[in-house]
Each structure stands twice: as C-alpha cells, then as structure tokens.
Design a protein that fits this description.
218 residues; alpha/beta; Rossmann fold; 5-stranded parallel beta sheet; 3-stranded antiparallel beta sheet; 9 helices; 16% strand; globular; binds adenosine monophosphate
Length: 218
C-alpha cells in the first residue's frame, strides 16, 4: 500500500512518517530529505538547490520527478511507500499517477494533516533535531532536555541541528507556496475519494492513533 502524507510545513509529516516506518515497515520517501542529501555533495546543482530551498520556493518538477522515479522503480519497496513532501503541485501529482501506472502501483490513501496556520510558524521556527538519532524536538513545545535521556548512548555527544530553511523569514514563504501550489492538490485527491483528514493539532501520540485507526479501516 502506498500512502501520501499531506499537509503544510510543520504539520508533522516527518514525525508521523517515522511511526509508519517503524510500525508498518513502510519506506519513507521524503523529497526534502533527498534534496538535503544532495546539498551535502557541494556540486553546482547543490548551490542552486540551496538557494531555492532557502527562499521557500519549489525545486523544478524535472529534478523532483527523476528523484522519485528512481525510488518507485525499486522493486524492494514496491507498494510500501509513504510519500512525504511529494507531490507539491498538480504537475507532480499527474507525473506520480503516470509513474505509478508504469510500475503497477497506486495510492491507497492521502492522510491530510490539518493544522491552523497560527501555530505552524512556532512549530517550524522552533524545530531542531538530534544529530545522532535524528529525533525531532521543538524549542518551544518539546525542548530536548538532557542528552543522556535521548535515544541512544551515542546521543551524549549530540549536536542539536536546525535546518537552514526553518527560520521565520523562509517559513512565511513556504506557507505561501503551500497555499498557492500544494493545497489545490487536496481537491484532486478528494475527487479520487482517497483523502482522510486527521486533526494534527493534537499531541503526537493522539495524531499517531488517528492515523492508526485510518490504517485499520482500510
Ligand atoms: P520539506 O523538507 O518537505 O519541507 O522541503 C524543504 C524544501 O525542499 C521545500 O521548501 C522545497 O524548496 C524543496 N522541496 C521538497 N519537496 C519538494 C517537491 N516535491 N517539489 C519541489 N520542491 C520540493
């Protein structure tokens, strides 16, 4: 079963995807993570990507679609993909449909994480994570505390990492991009009858259990 985890930046798509990876043995395909990996290569392309990402705009569909096709064509993860941060516009959704058809797969459900804009800015600008275990924290709502109480013994030497695009300036652009380009996609998937809404303003565990119920009903 393939799933799209949908919602604005800061809705908790990455956090909830980790739950599905752990509990349902699914594969998280986060285009943001793939792009951030690409940035580490320090190539000419990575300089261009960093500028776009730090401006809060979308990277070109060609780049994204080729990253995605590499994964959809991988038979070891066939029909167990969580699409996180993709598709981000109608063109990407149509390309996804074409690719899924080519590799004999489909989207079973779009989990729509619903959050008020008013709390997204704090959620995103407070976001930090452990450099060792990658566990996410929030400086305002869920501070990291003592490193000895993080996930692994090696976390004692952790650094707390903040994404370069998680700042208040970029956040408002990212939210605008979401509303203009990505939100209209919801209608596209509603017409296919696969959208399930989740109240993502509740605690992480409560959101996880709403998603669990959706999975149990499929
Ligand atoms: P995310 O980690 O999903 O918040 O993505 C971080 C940034 O990567 C976005 O603000 C975009 O600049 C870029 N990005 C991620 N996914 C996509 C996508 N599907 N299409 C275009 N750009 C993307």
């Amino acid at each position: 079963m393939n799933v799209i985890i949908f919602g604005p930046p800061g809705a908790g798509k990455g956090t909830q995807s980790s739950f599905l990876v752990e509990k349902k043995k699914m594969f998280q395909l986060s285009t943001g993570d793939l792009l951030r990996n690409e940035l580490k290569s320090k190539s000419k392309l990575s300089e261009k990507l960093k500028k776009i990402m730090d401006s809060g705009k979308l990277v070109s569909d060609d780049i994204i679609n080729s990253l995605i096709e590499k994964k959809i064509s991988d038979s070891s993860i066939k029909s167990s993909i969580i699409f996180d941060g993709f598709p981000r516009n109608i063109e990407q959704a149509k390309s996804l449909d074409t690719m899924l058809k080519k590799y004999e797969q489909k989207i079973s459900v779009v989990i729509n994480l619903v959050v008020d804009n008013s709390i997204l800015v704090k959620r995103i600008s407070g976001r930090i994570s452990c450099s060792v275990c990658k566990k996410p924290f929030n400086e305002f709502f869920d501070p990291p505390g003592d490193p000895a109480e993080c996930t692994t013994a090696a976390c004692i030497d952790r650094e707390l990492i903040k994404r370069s695009d998680d700042n208040e300036n970029t956040v408002s652009n990212r939210l605008r991009t979401y509303e203009e380009s990505t939100l209209p996609l919801l209608e596209y998937y509603k017409l296919k009858g696969v959208v399930k809404n989740v109240d993502a303003m509740k605690s992480i565990n409560e959101v996880t259990s709403q998603i669990n119920c959706i999975f149990n009903d499929l």
